[in-house]
Design brief:
The protein is α+β, with helices and mostly antiparallel strands. About 20% of the residues lie in helices and about 30% in strands.
């Protein structure tokens, strides 16, 4: 059963599990289960329209419209940046305290697109894990707010500043991912869409939807001695 965060006659939001595709994809033809069909079945067969996307490995708030008119309203609000998306990510190393990354990205069609991400560091940690001939390894927890919505934007932006998201493939650190797979059996990616802020498409009331972190994110946080109580 999908965790429903909000539901009325116009929109519905879930806490998407990591590993679940939003819909069928050419890039993941092995997948047999999708958020759209699971949610539709769960609410009695009513059609649902995904308003935005989350990567397969990204967990967190995912919003759907329940009719085409509401879908258009919300698509326009996403396009005009009237919706604020907040993500939690665990990065390799100690990132700057805060930074706006303004770095263009190239999509699958070879088109260069402007991409902007603001983030600030929430916590820093260092554990006894040997890496690159050093006895310890450093990591940090950040909150990221993408101003644009490009494909794999957060993964690519954090790799660009040399603080890749732990568990990200292919836009991560392969050596770190291997280290965590061998030592801690980490197969997921430490990226979670923890909050979505927007005005309701019909009532215009402000909604703040929060999604709790998943067990894997919590487990890694414990290993890193991060305080994630606020997000559990």
């Amino acid at each position: 059963m999908l965790e429903i965060l909000y539901q009325d006659e116009y929109i519905i939001a879930i806490n998407k599990p990591s590993g679940l595709l939003v819909h069928k994809s050419f890039y993941a033809r092995d997948a047999k289960v999708f958020a759209i069909q699971e949610l539709r079945n769960q609410i009695g067969g009513q059609h649902v329209y995904p308003i935005h996307r989350l990567d397969r490995k990204t967990s967190g708030v995912l919003l759907f419209a329940l009719d085409a008119a509401v879908l258009k309203i919300m698509n326009d609000r996403f396009a005009t940046r009237e919706v604020e998306k907040k993500y939690l990510a665990i990065l390799r190393g100690w990132s700057p305290e805060e930074l706006t990354i303004d770095y263009d990205l190239t999509n699958d069609d070879g088109i260069i697109q402007n991409a902007i991400t603001y983030f600030h560091r929430l916590q820093s940690t260092e554990i006894e894990l040997e890496f690159n001939n050093q006895p310890t390894s450093r990591y940090c927890l950040v909150e990221a707010i993408p101003e644009t919505g490009r494909m794999h934007q957060l993964r690519k932006h954090f790799k660009h500043i040399f603080h890749p998201i732990l568990g990200s493939r292919p836009h991560g650190c392969n050596k770190q991912n291997k280290l965590w797979l061998e030592n801690f059996d980490l197969k997921g990616m430490m990226l979670h869409a923890h909050q979505l802020i927007f005005n309701h498409p019909i009532t215009n009331e402000q909604l703040i939807l929060n999604a709790k972190i998943n067990e894997e994110f919590s487990r890694v946080g414990t290993l890193l001695k991060l305080d994630l109580n606020t997000y559990e």
